[in-house]
Amino acid sequence: MVASLWTAGCGGSGSTSAPEPLLPARVTVPDAASQAEAQARAVTPAATTVPLPTTTAPPPSPHADRIPTFAAPPSPPARKVALAAGPAAHLSRIATADPVAFITIDDGYVRHPDALALIRDSQVPVSLFLISSVAAQDPKYFSDIREQTGAVIQAHSVTHARLRGQSHEAQRREICGSADQLQQLFGTRPTLFRAPGGLQDATTRQVAAECGMRAVMFWKEAVNDGRVQFQEGNRIQPGDVILMHFRSTFVEDYLAALRAIKDAGLTPARLEDYL
Ligand SMILES: [Zn+2]
Asked: How far is the centre of ligand 1, averaged over its atoms, from the C-alpha of 274 (Å)?
């Protein structure tokens, strides 16, 4: 009773009745014993003639009622950021007057089952900086997010090795190697790179450019355990890049990032639209 009263009380979310879970049709081949058992029954179960629906709206995120709403980001952006030739730029904030901020999600070790629906229902274009060897363990998880939310997949090394201070060749293996592997996995070559731990040097920026990366991304805010940590002040500024991770705390981290963007009077936008 409590549950149905609660459901009746929160109109407007479009979920007047929860859809029945659709189970795949199952064909069983009976063995001798169960054949005898089936003969003993008066009614033979129906064969697999019930057609499955070809298109089904995905179920909404269980956290949909906690997602803030935003004004649409400027489209197109006021102007793209000009990037100089030579080594890739190292950026933690995009120089723009647009009231926007950018959510970036790193690594990929922990693949929370609610992430896809949460990102999709928030209608926010996020950028995923994936460790390519980790993405290779479950490419469908990330391609589903990309296809259903408009996320862009970017590079975050092959093995998450520390790059700062490493040789040109070692950094090349990690940076070009991850771009190559992600291109193989997802069909699109990354254009942005984030160094593991954010630890980069001049060689990183040089190699990133050689590997076709337009910028090496750092961040202004990081989200941990459901809290936004600011490097400057206590408010997200226009153009800020926000870092979070694929972790067990994904839902709280993602919602905290959205709330902080909302509190700053900004709207989430696609990083790649500005670079
Ligand atoms: Zn990382």
From this structure: 23
CA of residue 147 to ligand 1 center, whole Å: 23
pLDDT at 98 over 80: yes
Positive or negative CA dihedral for 148, 149, 152, 157? Answer: negative
CA distances from 55 to 22, 51, 59, 149 (A): 12, 12, 12, 17
Q: What is the second-level CATH architecture of the domain 89-273?
A: Alpha-Beta Barrel (3.20)
Dist. CA 156 → ligand 1 center (Å)? 7
Q: Is the pLDDT of residue 15 over 80?
A: no
User: What is the token pair recorded at 75?
Assistant: 């489209």
Residue 274, burial from CB neighbour count under 10 angstroms (0-12, 13-18, 19+): buried
Look at strands 221-224 and 227-230 and give their pairing. Answer: antiparallel
Beta-carbon contacts of residue 255 (< 8 Å; ≥ 6 apart): 63, 66, 67, 118, 226
Ligand 1 centre to CA of 33 (Å) is 55
Provide Rg for the chain, Cα atoms.
Answer: 23
Strands 100-107 and 267-268, sheet pairing:
parallel
Q: What angle do CA 193, 241, 179 make, to 5 degrees?
A: 15
Q: How far is the CA of 95 from the centre of ligand 1 (A)?
A: 24
Residue 244 Cα to ligand 1 middle (Å): 9
Average pLDDT over residues 29-40: 47
Q: For residue 190, how far is its CA from the centre of ligand 1 (angstroms)?
A: 16
The pLDDT tens digits for 180-189 are 999 999 999 9
Separation of CA 222 and ligand 1 centre (Å) = 12
**From the CB of residue 73, how many other CB atoms can be counted at a distance below 10 Å?**
21
Q: Which helix (H) or strand (E) holds 57?
A: none
